[in-house]
Amino acid sequence: MNTTDLKIGEYEQKLDRIINTIRNRFETKTKSISENVKSFRARINALEENQKHTVEGIEKLKRSIKEYEKKLLETRDPSILEREKELRRELEDRQSQADKLVEAIGQLKDLIQKMQEEKKSVEIERKSTQAIFQVRGCITHTGLSIEPISEDEEYDRIRFTYRRLNPARPKITYSFILNIAESSIYSVSDCVPNIPNIQHEVDELNKSRNLFAFMIRVRLLLEALTK
């Protein structure tokens, strides 16, 4: 293993430790959300079962009321009239209970939807945070600045500028432009100064898609030019 590979390995190990910490933190959060969703779904199942029995009870009460209404047409027995009133009160109570169950189920379903949306947001935040640390890692370890230049019909263009390559002349900058085609193929232009073997590194980048390693390798090539 050469010196370049060793340095890249050191940078990547540091970044991997940070990324693993980020991943573990967000995985804990998403696991908690998933457990809450599971718990709410269990509650919904129980409420829906309760709702089913309540609706069955309501239908039974309606049938009983119809029977007593029929009896009232045949007789004016006060006890039948009183029983009909009791059944109607019970029907109202059951209907109110059913309405509350429907409302509770709806609220739980809304909560589940919000939690699922939160879970998606957490995953987006995890990827964004990870990307930020990757960029910060590159900047910290390579003295690098990254500047989008322009977009046209064929390419996205990004300027990479390296600093502090030469301890004797730390203000001197070295740069190149990374072109990204719509097909996601990378190419390099406007190297200042000209970088030997840069095309080999670009070819490796297009194979590996490891932009972090590419930026470090280019810096090491530039460091070699200053010696």
From TrEMBL:
Keyword Transcription regulation annotated: no
Top-level lineage group: Eukaryota
Matches recorded under Gene3D superfamilies: Chromosome segregation protein Spc25
Keywords (A to Z) from UniProt: Cell cycle, Cell division, Centromere, Chromosome, Coiled coil, Kinetochore, Mitosis, Nucleus
Coiled-coil residue spans: 81-132
Record InterPro entries: Spc25, Spc25_C
Main location: nucleus
Pfam families found in the cross-reference section: Spindle_Spc25
Start and end residues of each Chromosome segregation protein Spc25 C-terminal domain: 155-221
Subcellular location: Nucleus; Chromosome, Centromere, Kinetochore
Any one of the GO BP annotations: cell division
GO cellular component: Ndc80 complex; nucleus
Function: Acts as a component of the essential kinetochore-associated NDC80 complex, which is required for chromosome segregation and spindle checkpoint activity.
PANTHER family the record matches: KINETOCHORE PROTEIN SPC25, KINETOCHORE PROTEIN SPC25-RELATED
Family per similarity comment: Belongs to the SPC25 family.
Quaternary structure note: Component of the NDC80 complex.
Protein name as annotated: Kinetochore protein SPC25
